[in-house]
Amino acid sequence: MPTIKKRTKRPWIPEKKPHEGYRHHNTKFYQSTAWRKLREEKLRKNPICEQCIRIGLIIPAQVVDHIVPINKGGAALDIDNLQSLCNPCHNRKSAMDK
Ligand SMILES: [Zn+2]
């Protein structure tokens, strides 16, 4: 019985493209000092999830999200384009954006 070498390519597993995910998530931007400062300012001004509060839930925000995503032309560093979200709301929005 032949042994399968570890390096054998398995075509059903898509190969990782190292730069694609990087670009999609704007890693560089989210690590920038400018963004971190703006994010902190937003959370300080609005520490409650803006989606949940509309239905009367007071949930601490964990994520600062771009209302108009950067890759759709939204202003990256405009506080008016930001919203504070809890994780579930952010995940829901991310899923809808796709
Ligand atoms: Zn929420």
Task: State the gist of this model.
The chain has 98 residues and is mainly alpha-helical.
How does this model look, in words?
This protein has 98 residues and is mainly α. It has a domain at 50-98. The chain contains 4 helices and 2 strands, in the order αααββα. The chain has helices at residues 18-24, 27-30, 33-45, 87-97, and strands spanning 63-66, 82-85. It has a two-stranded antiparallel ribbon with strand order 1-2. It is elongated and about 65 Å long. The mean pLDDT is 86. The protein binds zinc ion. Zinc ion binds next to helix 4. Residues 49, 51-52, 59, 85-86, 88-89 line the site of zinc ion.
Helices and strands, with pairings:
Blueprint: H1 18-24, H2 27-30, H3 33-45, E1 63-66, E2 82-85, H4 87-97
Zinc ion (ZN) binds at residues 49, 51-52, 59, 85-86, 88-89.
The class by helix and strand makeup works out as: mainly alpha
**Low-confidence parts:** none
Number of discrete helical segments: 4
Rg over CA atoms: 19 Å
- Please summarize the sheet with the most strands: 2 strands, antiparallel
Please state roughly what percent of the residues sit in beta strands, choosing from under 5%, 5-15%, 15-25%, 25-35%, 35-45% or over 45%.
5-15%
Number of strands: 2
Span from first to last CA?
Answer: 45 Å
How would the global form be characterised? elongated
The run of helices and strands is HHHEEH
Helix content: 25-40%
* Hetero ligands: zinc ion
What's the rounded overall pLDDT mean? 86
In order across it, which strands form the biggest sheet? 1-2
